[in-house]
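User: Batch of two.

Assistant: Item 1 of 2:
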Amino acid sequence: MKVIAIWTQSVDGYIAKRADDDLRWGKAADKQWFSKVTRGIGVVVMGRKTAELIGRPLPGRLNLVMSRKTGKSPRQILEDLENKGFKQVAICGGASIYTLWLRERLVDEVWVSIQPVIFEGGIKPVEDVEVKLEWVGQEEIGEGVVVMKYKVGY
């Protein structure tokens, strides 16, 4: 199963200004791109806080919300998805979920959409994780947003 971590960030590397950030600073082109690629992947995994900020399941794809209460590990989630016939999964936030999946060495690619904004500070996509990334390509999606794609090397 191919695991792709997808996040949007400011030019200076933040995925949110604060924990309750509604991401209104993200461009419409990015939201459209995200919808298209995650529908193609078929499954999105996110943390409870991210799901609450979105406010509803994302249509057209299986939505899995990780929390301490669900109790399934990333490996168990992948096993369940493989048993259901899925071939790919998108990890879609937040920072603790990206960090967990990268620490478990389960992420195959990282796709980062870079928004034309700079924050004074905020939340980084990962903490205390070190991986090597190999550039795969980039895609200009409009409104000054560029998606950088990397293969993860552990």
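Item 2 of 2:
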Amino acid sequence: MNIQFFIEKLKGSEEFKKFKKENPKSYLTSCFITLDIEGKGKTNEYHLDFFVPIDEGSDKKFGDWWSFKLEDGVKLIPLNKAGVNEVDEKYIPDFVKHPPKLGGKSSLEFSEIETIIESEMRDKDFNNKIQKILMVLQEIDGKEIYTCTVFISGFGLLKVVIEDMLDGGGKINFFEKKSFFDMIRRK
């Protein structure tokens, strides 16, 4: 499976058609995927996040965030935090006010992402097993990037950034191993 499968599933749903009719300026801004490797997919999650810019003349400071949860049908979930429009604008980062559009062109299979990570682990002589992968797909500097947090055996974490080459395959741009205990020791 890849993100294209879920985009097509979403576009075919009545929930999404209704949402787009009510929010024609909305656009895809990120995808959040949880892959439960150890549990053989029992708790996989797939969320596609959309941003609705504010209309001119609105008294709101920021647009609205919505997520479509896709693991069991299609369910629309509001992501706005209570009171966000009452927060002083200087404390809100620009990417929250105007998030970049995600083209959603990635064709990387989720199993391919897992394989890329496993290959890098072997190259670095890590003997741990992948338990779960949390991935966020976003467009950064015109590139579709998967930012992954990988839970591995032995209370380890990997931070992995994979660029979708869009013409086939993915390239690791960042790879770092952390211990859960390293994070606890930091104060």
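The longest strand covers residues 130-140.
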